[in-house]
Amino acid sequence: MKAITEAYKSVERKEKVLQFGEGNFLRAFVDWMIDILNEKTDFNGNVVLVQPLDRGLSDMINDQKGLYTTVLRGVQGGKTVEEYRPINSVSRCLNPYKEADYQEYLKLAVSEDLRFIISNTTEAGIAYHEGDKVTDNPPTSFPAKVCSFLYKRYQAFNGAKDKGIIVIPVELIDKNGDNLKRIVKQYATEWNLEAGFMTWLDEACDFCNSLVDRIVPGYPRAEADALCEKLGYKDNLLDSAEIFHLWVIECHKEFHEDELPFNKAGLNVVWTDDMSFYRTRKVRILNGAHTMSVLAAYQAGLNTVQDCIADKALLYPFMHSGIFKEIIPSMDGSKEELEAYAADVLERFENPYNPHQLLSISLNSVSKFKTRDLPSLLGYIEKQGKMPKRLVFALSALISFYEGTEFDGAALKGDRNGETYLIQDSPEILETFAGLYKEGGSAEEKAKRLSSAVLSNTTWWAQDLSAIKGLQAEVEANLKAIWTVGMKEAMKAL
């Protein structure tokens, strides 16, 4: 079978977008949109991907000259919809941990064509890392990389206002753009960079908050060969996603529709000066339902979100009741509108074409729970005066999912009925769990130790959850049940 590089050719355009993150989501969302912009408007720009970690997809992406195929499938209006699109908006992927690539990366800082930075470094990516320096090649943290990159640009163009950058992070944290800018400025202060650079960041650059909504299972491993046969070429970077998409971009200065004419291209992009409603609805219902369910579901023997929807005896009722009886009652706003959105979300979860792997959703679950489910848990207690038992169980299932004492590279090894699975999170979180589990003990002893240590970890939750009356006792009881009768029986007791 011929390669995708024989079926399609990459297109040389101005490299207008620098993208931190080369994973499935950005390629099936942002880069897919840029590809449509190139086709339907005069945008005429390509994306340069930057691999955030020293291991990633750069070699594979460059082997295919940036080309890959998005596989969009779903049900709309009761009809099956399929769309296969070869993407040629990616010019190359750089690994800044390689010296040659790092020099190419620095050249982009002084490029006349560059106008946008987009990122998805996971919820844990927009964070301060002590010890990063402007002279590091590259710095460790993503915000430090952005600070040093923008400083080089500021110096190269002598602070010219028309050489500023529009920064649009898509990490699923509240006020992602504001938080990224805050940490960038923290590094600038720590590194004693001149005041003019701070002014340039404020006046020439725009750090936009944004919200993305599309379910992207990614590489369709089980179907890859059959899909390639259908397409007529080999593509090692097939990227599957649902049809639905929404991007809400909150700007502080002006909307950038003239430079990113998404709406002219027929894309579902909302430019706004206040995205709070869209964000709360999406993060707490769609993302919250994922994080609430997947860790318990995986430990109960399921593997995909579709498995959860199909399990009408246990997981579907858990997810449905968690959304309609706990998450929505914890929220402000129109109940009817929230319930209508939730019904659409459950239909999207059922999409038979996108078997969304539970383990892929489990990445960085501690920060995800804090962002997606903790506000609902706390809001429910405040509004209803009692514990939301499914959300509390989800927190308990998170703790049991992270059970492991040995590492496989950077991942902690968990065990599901004799099958090893990899637990992926920040090193500090994994090391903390490994240390807690190494102490061993009976189910009762472990439940007491883990519930106390995890809930009282103010670094993870920004508050002491063990101080909430009754919460630790319920988590401890859930853990004891999970380790005594098993996940399924513990869930049935709900």
What secondary-structure arrangement, pairings included, does this model have?
Elements: H1 4-7, E1 14-20, H2 24-28, H3 30-40, E2 45-50, H4 58-63, E3 68-76, E4 79-87, E5 90-94, H5 99-109, E6 116-119, H6 142-156, E7 166-169, H7 176-190, H8 195-203, E8 206-207, E9 209-213, H9 224-231, E10 239-241, E11 246-250, E12 269-272, H10 276-299, H11 305-310, H12 315-327, H13 335-349, H14 358-361, H15 365-372, H16 374-384, H17 389-401, E13 407-408, E14 411-416, E15 419-423, H18 427-438, H19 443-455, H20 458-461, H21 471-485, H22 487-492
Parallel strand pairs: 1-2, 1-6, 2-5, 3-10, 6-7, 7-8, 11-12
Antiparallel strand pairs: 3-4, 9-11, 13-14, 14-15
Helix pairs in contact: 6-7, 10-12, 10-15, 10-17, 17-21, 19-21
Q: Could you give a short description of this structure?
A:
With 494 residues, the protein is α/β, with parallel strands linked by helices. It has helices at residues 4-7, 24-28, 30-40, 58-63, 99-109, 142-156, 176-190, 195-203, 224-231, 276-299, 305-310, 315-327, 335-349, 358-361, 365-372, 374-384, 389-401, 427-438, 443-455, 458-461, 471-485, 487-492; strands spanning 14-20, 45-50, 68-76, 79-87, 90-94, 116-119, 166-169, 206-207, 209-213, 239-241, 246-250, 269-272, 407-408, 411-416, 419-423. The chain has 22 helices and 15 strands.
